[in-house]
Amino acid sequence: MFSDVSKAAIVLMFLVLSVFALLKRVTKLSVLRGLYINYLWTFFLIFTVSEFLSFNVAIWILAILCFVALREYFTLVDIRLQDRWGILGAYFSIPFMIIFIPLNWYGLFIISIPVYAFLVIPFLVVLGGKETEGTISSIGAIDFGLFFLVYCIGHIGYLALFSTWWAIMLIINVSVCDFIAFLLKKSKKPRLSNVLIHYFISAPVTIIFTLALSFWTGIPWLHSLILGLLIPTLVAIGRYTLTYIEADLGIGSGRLLPGKGRVIDSLRSFLYAAPVVFHYIRYFSMRSDAF
């Protein structure tokens, strides 16, 4: 009975997001334009496919999202033509990491990119040409994009393997933080005071949502409270950090188009939240006296 209600709730959220995504396409409401509805829809498509079809299929939708984000990043970052082998290696790192998630092979998942990919990519970069100047910059740029836009986002998939509702809890709370930040947004300049204001307004809301979702997630109230405080902190750090990186890439409010920074800007709040929340929940869920 609980399983049926849980699946019905996921489908309902997916249908609601589908309506909002459609409205965003056919209307010019500023609130809808400012939200990353399409990416929320993508996440809930993953959850819906996982619940009703197969997690093995759903996880490859996440792989496609990682590919799109990484591809956008490579179109914006300044790298050399001879680095194409390193870029190709970065793209192949996506399935190399993703394949370990449905196998629940945590040991290889956790080192797939920070060890193996980070060792292979420098070799591929130097293999691509004879020009030595800019080699370190190229390796750093490729590894940076791969780490944030593939490895960090990949933790959402592993979280969904443990529990779809754990991943939903993360997605909803991050989205709440971003929605509040959007309503309060006055400037693109990364001011620490704005970050703190957004946090103190977001934290009570995320605490309420996390506690309310504990019925579905099964996370004890104490840990739900901690996660409600932790998630807006991680979102604030992610938004603040990526604002500088976006500025360096030339991403501005007037350039948030497909291929011009929209994907990176839409995912930036997950980059710190996804891996930290995953490891927090995994650690305490493995302790019988905690969850």
Keywords:
mainly alpha; 291 residues; single chain
Task: Give a written overview of the molecule.
The protein is an all-alpha fold and about 290 residues long. The chain has one domain. About 80% of the residues lie in helices and about 0% in strands. The protein is built from twelve helices and no strands. The protein has helices at about 1-25, 30-35, 35-50, 55-75, 85-100, 105-125, 135-160, 165-185, 190-215, 220-250, 260-265, 270-285. Helix 7 crosses helix 12 (about 270-285) and helix 9 (about 190-215) packs across helix 10 (about 220-250). The longest helix has 29 residues, at about 220-250. It is globular. It starts with a helix and ends in a 6-residue tail after the last helix. The model has no long low-confidence stretch (mean pLDDT about 85).
